[in-house]
Design goal:
With 855 residues, this protein is an all-alpha fold. The protein has a domain of 124 residues: Alpha Horseshoe (Serine Threonine Protein Phosphatase 5, Tetratricopeptide repeat), CATH 1.25.40. Helices cover 70% and strands 0% of the residues. The chain contains 46 helices and no strands. It starts with a helix and ends with a helix.
Length: 855
Amino acid sequence: MALRTLNCVQMMASNTGHVPDGQAPTVAEAALAIVPTPDQLTMIAKTTTTLSPELEQRCAQMIQGLQRDINKLSDPATDRSAKRRTLDGWRRSVVDPLTRERSPPLTLAVTLALAPCLARLLGDKVEKCRELSGQILTSIISDLSDVKSLLPSLVPALVDRLARDDQPEPSEEIRLENLRLLVMLADKSGPMASLITADVCSVLDHTLVDSYPEVRKESCKAVVLLAVHAPAALRLHAEKLLKRLVPSLSHRHSAVRIVALQAVGTAMQVDASIFKDIWPSVRKLALDSSPAVRQQLYSVALNWQTQLVDRYSYAACMLSVLISGLADEVLELRVKCQAAIDDVSRVYETEWADRVKDKLDYEPKRTLIGFRTLVHENLLKLTDSLVEDLGDWTVEVRRWAALTLAQLLPFAEGHISGYLDKLLPALAKVVHEPFAPLVFQTASAIGQYVAPDLLLHLTVPHLRTPSYLALLVHALDKSPITASHINAILKEMQDLAENDEAAAIADPNLKSLYLILLARSGAFAAQVDMDLLLSIGLAIADDAVLNAMNTASVPLFARVPDSLVNLTKRDLAPRSPQLYLVKRFLKLAPPAVVFSASALVPVLERLSTAATTDDSGIEALTEVLDVILPKADQILADVASTLWLNVIVRNLRWRSGRKAVQLRARASALAHACLVNVSVPDLPWSNDAASAPPAQGAFAHPPPGPLTATLTALSTAMDDDPVATRRTVVMIVQRVAESWGSQWDAEHVKVVYPDLVKRLDDAQDPVRVLACAGLAAVYEYVHAVTQLDPVHHQELVKSVAIHVDDPNPDVMNAALVTLRAMLRVQPDAVKAHIDSTAHLFRNASALRDLLAVSS
C-alpha cells in the first residue's frame, strides 16, 4: 500500500514539472514540491482507501473546498498572516469536524490530501506556520489506526526538519512536536515500521543528544518502539543508538535517566555487541540518588539476566547490581531485588537443570540454589570487578563495592577462599574509609565461610599493619578457631608488642583481638599458652582488658609469679621488651600477687645484682622501682625484710654517676615506705658483726652486719645532691634509731652522727630540722650513746647549739629540742658549753631557760 502511494506521489511530481525530465524525484523532493490538483487528490484517496459513495462524494467536496487554501499555502508569495489564518481555519473547519465524526476512512482520505501541503509547511520560514502544521497533523493522525499510506509524504519532511546538520529546527517545542509526530507514525505503523527505521534512526542520531530534555525523553521512547515493532531493522543501527544514549544516562534530570535506561535495556536485547562498552555507564546508576532510577536499573538487570541472548556471558555485571540492591536504602527496592534474584534462580534451575540436579535432590531445604551456582560460576569476574572498584578514586564507587561484597559473601560462601589473596589487600586499603562498617561486615562473613588455617595464613603475617589487624579482629568474630590458631596469633602479637610497644598499646584493635582470644581460650585451657596469654594481656592492658582478665574463666593472675621468674632469666636491659613486660606485670597485676615473696623478690634481686655491674642495670632497676613506689605501702613485712639488704641497702651505697644518684633516690624512698607504711622488717640486728671481734682464722675485717651495713649506706646517702634523697635518708636514720636504738653500739653512733652534723648546715632548712630530730632520736633511744668519749659529746653540743641563733624559727626550735635530749643524757657537757658561751648567743635567754627547766 505504502509503495503504491509513493508511486502516485512521484507520478504527480513528474506531471507538475517540479523535477527535471528523465530524472525520478526522491521521496523528500516529491513530498515537498508537489501541488496536486483536486482530481489528483481524489485519485490518491481512492488508491489508498475504500470509501462508500456518500463518503467519497463528501471527501471530494471537502478536497475541492480546500484546494484554494492548498494553492495559497503552496504559493511562496503568500504572506505569513494569510498562511496562519488559513491554518487556523483548517483547525476549525477540518480538524474539529473530523475529530467529532471519528470516521477513520474519511479522516485518512482528507489527511492524504492535506499531507503534502502540511509536510511542506513543516519547513516554512514562519515559526507559527511550522507549529500549526505539526499540530494539525498530530491531531488528525492521532485518530488513525493505519498510517502506512502517510509515511511517504510525512517521514521525509520530518527527517528533513529533525536530522539536518545545517539549519535544524530552532524551536524546542516544535522539535518536540515533530518528533512526537514521527514516533506516532512509527508506533501506528506496527510491523511496517521497519520501512522507516533507517529514517527514524537518522533522526534519533540527533535528537538523542538534544539539549531539550523532553526531546531526549521522546527519543528514548522511539528507541523502545522500534525495538518492539522492528527489531530486525533496528539491529543495523542499535550500536550507534546505544552510544548516543550513554550521555542521557548521566543527565541531570532523573526522568531522562529513567527513560534512557529503559531504552538502553530494550536496545541491548536487539544487539548486545557493545555491552561491555556501555556497562560502566549503566552500572553508575546503582549509585544514583533517585530511587526511581535505581528501580529501573534493577528491572533492566533482571530483564537482561532472564531474556538477553548472551546473558550468561555478562552475568557477572547483572549479578553485581542485583546483589547490591539487597542493601538498598529503600525497603521496597530491597524486596524487588530479592524477588528478582528468586526469578533469576528459577530461570537458571530450568535452563541448567543438569548442573543443579544433585544439589536440589540432596539439599532440598537450601534456597536459591540456581542463583548461588550462578554466583559461583562468575565469582572470578565478580571479585576482579569489585577489587578494581575498591581502588576507585571516588568514595561513592568504593562504598558501593564494599556494600556489594558484604551482600555477595552469603551467596559465595566458601568459594570465596580462592580469591582472598587479592580480596584482602583491597579491603585493607579501605578499612579507614567512612564506610568501614561495610568492610568489617565483609570481614566477618569471610571469617564465617573461610577455613581458619587459610584466614590466618593470609592475615597473621601482616598484623603489624593496622588495617590487616582490624580485618582479622572482625573475621575472628565468627571464625571457628581452635587452640593452635590462638597460639599462632598470640606469638605474632608477642612479637608486635615486643618490637613496637607504643603502637601495641595504642591500637584499640590489638586489644579487641586479645579480648576475642581471651574469651575463646576458656574452651582450650589445657592447650593454650597461658603464660603468653597473660604476658600479652598485661603488655597491652587497659581498663577493659584488665577487667576481662580478672573475670576470665582461666585464673591468669595466679601465673604472675612464675611468669616473672621466667622473665628474670632473660635480658632485662633498659627499653627491652622483657623489662617492659616486667613493669607492666608490676603495675597492673593485683598487688596481693605482685608483692608476694615469690613474685617481687626474684625480680628485684636479679635487677639489683645487675645494677652493681653497669649503668644499664642501674637504669633498669630505677625504672622498675618507679613502678613499685606508688604502691610500696602494700609490700608485705616478710617481703620487705627479704629485700632490705640485697636490694635497698645495696643500692643506698654511694656510687658515682647520675644514674646511681637516681637509683639511691628510689632506694631511699622504698626503704622509707618499708619502715613507715609497712610492718617493720624483722631483721637480725642482734647478730650484727660491726663491733664483734673477728673469729680465729677469719679476715681482719669481717663483713658488716645488717645494722652496720644499713647505717653505713644511710650515712653515705645523706650527702647526696637531690634534696629529696637527703631528707628521706635522714628520716630513715631517725626511724631506725627510734625502733632499734637498743641494738646500737658506740661504733654505730660514730658511723651516723658525723653525717647528721653535716646536715645541720644543709642548704635546705627542712633537712636541717630533720637532722636535729635525728640527733635527738639518737640521744633519746640509743643507749650506747653514753659510751662515747666526752669529746664527742662536746663536739655534738657545740654543733647543735650554734643553730639556736638560726633566723629560721623551725631550725631554732629543733636545735633546742635536740639540746634538751642531750641535756638528759649528758647534762655536764651541755651545761658547761652553755655556761661558757651563752654570752655569745643572741638567744642566750632560750639557752638559760633550757638549763632552768632541766634543773
